[in-house]
Amino acid sequence: MAYIDPHVHMTSRTTDDYQAMQRAGVVAVIEPAFWMGQPRTEVGTFKDYYSHLIGFERFRASQFGIRHYCTIGLNSKEANNEALAEEVMELLPLFIYKEGVVGVGEIGYDDQTAAEDKYYRLQLELAREAGLPVQIHTPHRDKKQGTIRSMEVALEHGLAPHMVIVDHNNEETVEQVLERGFWAAFTIYPHTKMGNERMTEIVRQYGPERIMVNSAADWGISDPLAVPKTAQLMLERGISAEAVHLVTYQNALAAFGQSGQMPESDWLQAPAVDQSQRYAGSSILRGGQVPQSDPSSALIR
């Protein structure tokens, strides 16, 4: 079975993670722009970060047989630095139209401050004008209120629900998100957001339509194999293969494919992996290493 992880921060992960994901069946990933763990202080760091997402990280993924896409946005935490946020907003139109950008994200609310609301709304307008899907980060505190507010504000700005992926759902929010016609994404993240046993029961209760599973693996303790592991558990617990395919592959493709930047042929007709390639003079190989044409090979030389 093939999988898409529609929310994973590969910039924070290792080449071992790419190899393990490829062996587990992950064919494509979407990396939302996000918070790096500490506040950035200069607009240039955002520019370099966005450039990395559409540049070297795409190349790095391709060297392991995985297609890499991203969403570009100003995250909610850093929206509270208004002086910097203003500068970042000027950058965003330079990046959201680039190849491989499948949406504006991850944006939304964290503490639900006035500044977060201001920049969330501005980015919704940007997405609407560009005709791109929106990837919404819902807050960890006051989640239900923040999720409802996120959807209502998106509607206020003319975003159709089918163009909005509401992320980090749980049992408290899923019903309202689905009833309103939005995509409902779930993050399988150890101890904090959602375990895959709970995820299995959500699919059993609500069905697979407009639901997708992601890992949101990042620089914290997280699991880049969360999508294939959840698929395996669902099959073991009696969820149909068709439903598992929808929530771990097809729905993500349908939602983010609306960008026009993510055709399935990208990985179905991909050229063979060639690890001798370079990006701006940089290779993933280190001194004396031999390129592997088969990224699933167990050989270590």
From TrEMBL:
<dbReference type="Pfam" id="PF01026">
    <property type="entry name" value="TatD_DNase"/>
</dbReference>
<protein>
    <submittedName>
        <fullName>Hydrolase TatD</fullName>
    </submittedName>
</protein>
<comment type="similarity">
    <text>Belongs to the metallo-dependent hydrolases superfamily.</text>
</comment>
<dbReference type="InterPro" id="IPR012022">
    <property type="entry name" value="UCP005295"/>
</dbReference>
<keyword id="KW-0378">Hydrolase</keyword>
<dbReference type="GO" id="GO:0046872">
    <property type="term" value="F:metal ion binding"/>
</dbReference>
<dbReference type="InterPro" id="IPR032466">
    <property type="entry name" value="Metal_Hydrolase"/>
</dbReference>
<dbReference type="InterPro" id="IPR001130">
    <property type="entry name" value="TatD-like"/>
</dbReference>
<dbReference type="GO" id="GO:0016788">
    <property type="term" value="F:hydrolase activity, acting on ester bonds"/>
</dbReference>
<keyword id="KW-0479">Metal-binding</keyword>
